[in-house]
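Office hours follow-up: a student asked to see two folded examples consecutively, so here they are.
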Amino acid sequence: MAGEGDLKLLGMVVSPFVVRVRMALHLKGVSYEYIEQDLLNKGELLLNHRAYVDEALAASSPSILPADPHNRAVARFWAAYVDDKFFPAWIGVMRAETEEDRAKKMSETAAVVEQLEAALAQCSNGKAFFSGESVGYLDIAVGCNLFWLDAMRKMFGVVVIDAARTPGFAAWADRFRESGVGKKVLPDADVAAEYAKKIQAYRAAAAASK
């Protein structure tokens, strides 16, 4: 991989947003030092530094955004949709306190997933990925969430991406997991599940102490 000076990435292995950055760096061929952080007890480096891949590594290649301005705008629109709708939707499923509430959140999430099925059809032009023949910006924006969906399936028995309901999106998810960046960077679902249990215990202890 190409070097970018003394590049350090501060993050937590189970954060989909950190995973997204790691995927971008992998696709751009940039080497870096990864420093795991405990977000419950933030270290000095994390408190004092912030970095943005698009700004800091603008000269690095290959580009992960579409070359065409319109396609680039569409990719950014759907990436924002992922952050504003998809991420909060599955987080709601994760945090549901009752089975009834979880079922309601699953219904809301299913509607969001149907929109991503439509986005895939719009952006891929019938090819393997949102970005075409290979993984790109929008693929990693969506794909960085997949390991948490796998973790929720193990924890609660819920299927967020239903192949019967959204076959195109389900097939894309399988291809993404098997892609080079998916195999290299996506954390194991068991790691996410263990972290979720840790947070649940932390919240329970905090509530009991009040």
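And the second, which I mentioned at the end of office hours:
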Amino acid sequence: MPTLPDHSHCNKYLRILECLQVLACTDDELLLLKDAVLSIGMRPDFDGQSLFDQDLRKFDSFGRHRQALWAEVENSDPLFAELLSGTRQECGSATWHTYISKVKTAIIHKVMKPIRNRRSRTTRARLTSEKRSSTSEVIDLDDDTEEEDEEMTGVSTTLEEETDERPGKRAKLSFRIPDTPETSSFASWNTTPLRKSVGPPVENEEMSDDHQGPSNEHLPCHDQSSEEVAGGFANKMAQLVKQHLDQRTAELDATFEARVAAQVVTERAGIAEKRNKIAQERESLARLVEEQVQQRVSEEKQELESVIMGEAEAQVAAERNEIGLLIERQVQIRLPEERITWEEAVAKQLKSLF
């Protein structure tokens, strides 16, 4: 018979070789067992949901669904019932219970590991997609207002019409926002080419003067503003993400506590109901046993009385027979003597008469 491995190592779960050693099975048999566990665990038979698609620490904190899973696995194939019953090992029930519990935990962990990895990848991809969509919505500052675009279109059209009066020479248009606190703050948030309504149309000479532009001292530094905007935006996004995560964590904690409390209440109610059923069954069994005992005692008493009465009647009949025989013998013995005495008395009476 195979020997059980030493499970005193620090690993949380048994290794494959240790599972094979505990079950005393081959690789193919263990693979069949894992496939059966995966197939049954993915069915929506556990409160209408798939067991392996849930967080077992929340969904099955008391292990009720896992017990049902292993019961279904044992009933699905005689091979699995043989492997999980411990008939291939020579050990006590307590020792086997310890080892088989570790084997079941290790098998469920190995079966659910790829499912958890796939689920985490899907969650990360979804969160990344949501983060990207929220980021694109926040940094899309080009679509400020439609009114500004309409104003810019009107100004550009007017200036082009005026410059067309000079044939062969087309003025290059550029628009500049005066360096004021309001426009500087706006430029720090928008790194795209600045567009602003510049009021009514002006003459070509004024436009040529504006085209020369001010000195570099008065122009806003777009690169520096872009870096500052990027840094501020990153900090703001980090704060928003942290705030969202904290809020979501608090909501999940509250939901988890509520679900655990509800599950505990449900489990306690189920346990109390089971205890009541057990108490009722015990009472009914006690009454049934008492009735059966009384009936059996009555039957035994009747049988005993009938036996005693039969023996007593037989003994009385035997004694009557013996007494009758004794009386008959006494009569036979005393009858001749009494007859002689009677004859003598009769003879005496006859003599006295004659």
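Two things to take away from it. The mean pLDDT is 73. Residues 17-125 form one domain.
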